[in-house]
Amino acid sequence: MLGKMELTAPCHFGMEAVLKKEIFDLGYDVTKVSDGRVYFEGDAEAICYSNVFLRTAERVLINVGEFKAETFEELFQGTKAIEWENYIPEDAKFNVVKAASVKSKLFSPTDIQKIMKKAMVDRLGSYYQRTHFEETGIEFGIRVMINKDIVSVGLDTTGTSLHKRGYRLLTAKAPIAENLAAAIILLSPWKEDRILVDPFCGSGTFPIEAALIGANIAPGLNRKFASMEWKHLIDTKMWSDCKQDARERIIVPEKMDIQGYDLNPEMVEIARENARKAGVDQYIHFQARDVKDLSHHKKYGFIITNPPYGERLMDKDSVADIYKTLGERYKELDSWSMYMITSYPDAETSIGRKADKNRKIYNGMMKTYLYQFMGPKPPKRSEGER
Ligand SMILES: C[S@@+](CC[C@H](N)C(=O)[O-])C[C@H]1O[C@@H](n2cnc3c(N)ncnc32)[C@H](O)[C@@H]1O
């Protein structure tokens, strides 16, 4: 069984502070934050909790080794020095599934993968007294990052990325990753008693993630993780206790008003179906509607959205028109805040207002900006009022 370890959770570049807070709120000590990664301390139970509860992480890795390597020989020796036998049983399948290199002498992913696998076979071969492995058993994925010649070796506890919650079988043409959508919502001051509208909801990712947050439904409640199969390391009961705890934490918010609109009625159907799968359809009103009809009688709401980007979905003029219309509609919603993620370079000009804050975020390889237009804070509620 596993003792205390250093764990790493990669996330979207620019969202480290949000993930750090999530890990802290789960009760774990964050030891380091670097670009796109948060490091923390935890035991086997932390592997269960971080996989099931973290909304903004991409995966959770056990840091099994860190060493310097400028040559393949050093990479081989460094990998061989890791106590792989503490994790990997004799019949297991093991592979370096991902190798990335930044500003380092070693940079060929396939060569890095091959050398490391060879070193692991060498180490495990002498431990288990064999030269060949059938690899018919449970799976272990190794992910390695070489940054300025420092090799960080991670054992992947997650498997399929955490952004795949399992509810989004159908998507829009340019969907936003679920964990990035969650990070943007968590970055905003939105709480479940404030209105949230996504006028370009596509497959419904923002409304669904917001409803999951508002009802305190853990994002990983209904999915599997690679390390659930590692029964020699993590007791099966630990997983079932963690999921039971997640079920007990679900709340039924008294008041939660979330709305998703899209011009395309087929997208709206898809969004509805996805929300049903996520178990939050009762909290969201979806409807086919053009952004030009966006209006609301209530105050202090939030628009959180990802409008068409242009390069992927349509020609430049119609994109400019959409942002112009959004700007005009938003102007009428004078007490509202708007969080908008886009890679459209003229978004602020077309909207007709400069954002109060803006931060660069990578959505996969695409550079995007999150524009934050801040509305006023609502007046303090009087006693007993919600
Ligand atoms: C980038 S996608 C949104 C993706 C969404 N965030 C998701 O995760 O699936 C933009 C969406 O805007 C919709 N759209 C385009 N023009 C529109 C308009 N005038 N009014 C409302 N929606 C529009 C498209 O149908 C598309 O689904």
What is this structure's SSE topology?
Layout: E1 5-10, H1 16-26, E2 30-34, E3 37-42, H2 44-53, E4 61-68, H3 72-80, E5 93-102, H4 109-128, E6 139-147, E7 150-156, H5 178-187, E8 196-198, H6 205-214, H7 236-249, E9 258-262, H8 265-278, E10 284-288, E11 302-305, H9 316-332, E12 337-342, H10 347-351, E13 357-363, E14 366-373
Parallel strand pairs: 5-6, 8-9, 8-11, 9-10, 11-12
Antiparallel strand pairs: 1-3, 1-4, 2-3, 4-7, 6-7, 12-14, 13-14
Helix pairs in contact: 2-7, 3-4, 5-6, 6-8
The protein binds S-adenosylmethionine (SAM).
| DSSP E strands, number | 14
Largest sheet: 7 strands, mixed
Arithmetic mean of pLDDT: 94
Order of helices and strands: EHEEHEHEHEEHEHHEHEEHEHEE
* Helix/strand/pairing category: alpha/beta
Give the % helix: 25-40%
Number of helices: 10
Count of folded domains: 2
CATH superfamily of the largest domain: Vaccinia Virus protein VP39
Task: Just name the CATH architecture of the largest domain.
Answer: 3-Layer(aba) Sandwich
Bound molecules: S-adenosylmethionine
Subunit organisation of the chains: single chain
Radius of gyration: 23 Å
Spatial ordering of strands, largest sheet: 2-3-1-4-7-6-5
Summarize the structure in words:
The model has no long low-confidence stretch (mean pLDDT 94). The chain is an alpha/beta fold. The chain has helices at residues 16-26, 44-53, 72-80, 109-128, 178-187, 205-214, 236-249, 265-278, 316-332, 347-351, and strands at residues 5-10, 30-34, 37-42, 61-68, 93-102, 139-147, 150-156, 196-198, 258-262, 284-288, 302-305, 337-342, 357-363, 366-373. α2 (44-53) runs parallel beside α7 (236-249) and α5 (178-187) packs across α6. The chain has two domains: 5-156, VC0802-like; 178-215 and 256-373, 3-Layer(aba) Sandwich (Rossmann fold). The structure holds S-adenosylmethionine (SAM). S-adenosylmethionine (SAM) binds next to α6.
